[in-house]
Amino acid sequence: MADTLASPAPSAPPHTRMQRMLDGIERLGNKMPDPAILFLWLCVGVIVLSQLLAWLDVDATYQVVEPPPATAEETYYGGSTDSVYVGPTEHEPADDYQVREKTTEVEGLLTGDGVRFLFTSFVDNFRNFAAVAIILVVMIGVGLAEAAGLIGALIRKLVAVSSSSTLTFIIVLLGMISSVASDAGYIVLIPLGAVAFKSVGRNPLAGIAAAFAGVAAGFGVNFLITPLDGVLTEITNDASALVDPDANIDLAANLYFGIVSALFVTIVLTFVSSRMVESRMGPWDASQAGEQPEDEPVVDKVAEARGLRYALWATLAVVAVIALLTAIPGAPLQDPETGRVIGDSPFMDSLIVIIAVIFLAAGLAYGRGAGTIKTSAEILASITKSWAGMASLLFLFLLIAQFIAYFSYSNMAEVAAVSLGDVLEQMDIGAVWLLLGFMLVTMVVDLIMPAAIAKWAILAPIFIPLLIRLDVTPQTVLAAYRVADSPLNVLTPLMAYFPLIVVFVQRYNRQAGIGTVVSLMLPFVVVLSIAWTAFFVVWYLLGVPLGPGSPVHP
């Protein structure tokens, strides 16, 4: 025992130039404040900068197409003591619109009016930030399904039925889909990918790499509409309103692009995993294994299978009800005037509620069948726990809402968009190169701020007004952001789950560290970034719609 204790620890392998660079990024990132603190400082920065620019009389003059003046009626809803003004329900004829010259000045937030706005709008800014309501409603269903064990059971079931030849594809595909359940992919699928690869005699580190790539590198797209889509859509609309209040997009604005991209990304990541990563690693050496996790409790296979059957029946029942409310002539979820289902219709406006109800019904059914949820108290506790887990996110939303509101009040985004737009128009470099430049900026920012929501809240108010002015639609900018935001998630040590991935890798290689994970994931980043960017450019040039009623070009 004494000899064992006295033996020197194995020396750390020398750092390569790449590892030293990553160590520098990690040290820099550790000095970055928490996103909430960052947005607090951004709010302060907007306040100070707006006043400085106002003192310098910064403004922008440009042409804008405006409708004729319209009358509005004062109305009281639901017995409220506060009145609202409702305008006409029909748009004015196109011939009545006129081109006018407009000058916008930067408004200081430290003037009398500005200070009044800071104090009187604080609650309204948060209340009107629709992302808060969207994430809370969706997590009623998704949180219950996750707490009941449905998400984990689905992942285990699909991995179990996969053959050795299709295992990589299934693992990556599950990682793509798992973003609908927030953190479930990181916590459940990634360690399960290692176990699945090991069980068929393949290197478990390759299983971790494939799962991590699917969960994180393809995070921005999915076959389904996810809670993230609702948040990104609302931030996009808030940013679009800075220059065009009518430039709203709906929740399915990127649906077609997301579905096709999800399949494309899955194929690319599967190819990289099989042909580049796993082939280089070779067979796993069990003597290098570190401390293994404790054995998980034995899952009652019969109860789990029964729960999955119940969940399937519940899902089909909900889908059947939604179909009846949508497909029958005159159904309530159709547009009452046009009868449309896709586009501007009650069905599209109800997608968040429909997603929440499907997950709620499936989670309840699985919990009853598997015996994981037995009482109404447990149901309420699961929903409450899912909401409690979002406390830090809600506080972040509070600060993001203030940042966007202050940015909007100051008119800095509009002035910057006009000024940059004039410069870029004179350069005449084309929309494709502008989008590529925006994507490059997003990738660079992603290295120090991996959080998709926080990053988009900063970039959207800057780039969406600029690109709208240059005739690029908001849904196209959002699609470009999805492409640029995801691949580098697996490379930056600042990603919230990156340390957890290192721990997973150390279970099978006790000497592994950040450099090990980066060397595993670097091929995914390089190949996916190039291939997916090229895919987006081709999609844009072909002019394929990004979603229902969402053209890629104006």
TrEMBL record:
Alphabetized InterPro entries for the sequence: AbgT
Any GO BP: p-aminobenzoyl-glutamate transmembrane transport
The entry's keywords: Membrane, Transmembrane, Transmembrane helix
Pfam families noted in UniProt: ABG_transport (PF03806)
UniProt KW Glycoprotein keyword: no
Ranges annotated as spanning the membrane: 36-56, 129-155, 167-193, 205-225, 251-272, 310-328, 348-366, 387-409, 429-449, 456-481, 487-505, 517-542
Listed GO MF terms: secondary active p-aminobenzoyl-glutamate transmembrane transporter activity
Signal peptide: none
Name of the protein in question: AbgT family transporter
Organism the protein comes from: Solirubrobacter phytolaccae
